[in-house]
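Hello K.,

You asked for the raw outputs rather than the summary table, so here they are, unedited. I folded two proteins back to back in the same session to keep the settings identical. This is the first:
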Amino acid sequence: MVKRLKVGEDTSILKLITEEEWSIREQRHLQRLQDIRICLGFISDAQNDHTSLLENHRQNERWTHYLDCDGLPRPEWPPEIRRFLAQMRYEEAQDEDELVNWTLSVNERSILSQNIFRRDLTWKTLAAIRPNIGQFYDVCVQRILEMVLRIDHVLLNELEMVYISEERAAEMLQMRHELHEEIHVLFDKLTYRIICAPSAYMAYNDCTVAVYCYKAVNYNFQIWCIKDVPIRFPHLEFTVYLLWLPIWRGLVLAYRCHLVYLGIT
């Protein structure tokens, strides 16, 4: 081999190396190549083991979801998610139709009887056991949030995305947006049902303010209403507030809050 000459040196004189030195250099380079080959083998084995663990974890998760029977669809199949939303809307409409306003059963004179089997139908007694419609919507919101989490888990899993086409991945992203919008719709429906029957679902702090509160695991839903207060609506500008509520594991919900006025009925 020929040594590299520095700039400015005389190129007419070539410095040669001995055969022994050349053999040492060759052995050194071969040893480096062998070390690199061994390291690449370790890396390849580690990648194969990691892929195998991910595949086993994916299969275990699928089997766990199958055994749970939680009613949630598979996140990689958007048609099943749409069927899930349609079923949820049907159950919500059915719950609204079947729920009877408990205030219709109030009878303040029910305790005036001497019958020992009489039922106490006074307002105070029935108000203590009145149904809380927020529980049904809370269950729906929690199921949607779990569905969003599963979709994110699939989209961030490279092993899962190998079996999913680009069109279905784009549709999954669209379904994620639709699930967020469904949470908005559920809160709007809950607000509408409460405002339509304030005496049945809201508590009165005083003669003018009615309040409804529902504290869930991941959010706190509250409504304040003004009742029987003289307001000049032509001279009032309704303010719309945009609240950013941290819901669950990094998810943020933007919800509109309007001033609510309950007049005399």
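The second followed immediately with the same parameters:
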Amino acid sequence: MNYRKAEAESKKSRRDYSDFRQIEKQREHSTKREARKDEDFTKRELAAKREVRQDNNYRKAEAESQKSQRDHSDFRQIERQREHSSKREARKDEDFTKRELAAKREVRKDNNYIEKLKKKVRSLRDNSDLRQIERQRELSSKREARKNEDFTKRELATKREARKNDVFKRNEAEKKKIARQDEEYRKHESERDFHRKQESRSNPENLEYKRLTKQSSKQKNLDKDRSCNQSVKNTKNKDTDFTDHEKN
């Protein structure tokens, strides 16, 4: 008993240091990752979790602890980043991605799930501040992702495929039509277009590209004019040859 008490106290004193807690957490995660490579362990772990979650007291305690943690915005941010990074790592495995998609498809077949999700999204979007935060977070994550060339190529390819669909095009046009009825949206759209033009004009690469395109278009026009003049000359020569032949 004395030994166990001393060990518990030493662990507690160590955990007061954030660096030690971080090291301990990483070690725990690495051991779990190693263990989860074994399918039997994963099955046992999932079965144990299901059994535990059937207890109402456990669920209440877990919900309260999560709620208290999420009251701190810094903790929420760290939790979110950790979740994203772990998902990114996991999605590098094709089998995991396939399993995830299959599970999502199965869940979305349930009408109750869809209704709950819609209600949740609606209640969240009623709060304009939360919508703004959500939008900023989405844009920042997209910016980060677009730094990767492969992601950008895939995104463009999917957009091209989607735009081939007539229904998608109609829906997009209707959405824009409805949005443009709002004066604020029209102002925002015009400002956005203006800023985009300014950015493109200030970019030296774009200026060089414009110069080259203008030069090539001028060259094409000159070539066309030359070919037209040549064809006119040829027709004139043919006509004169024909008239000379008639005179003779």
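The radius of gyration is 33 Å.

Happy to rerun anything if the numbers look odd on your end.

Regards,
P.
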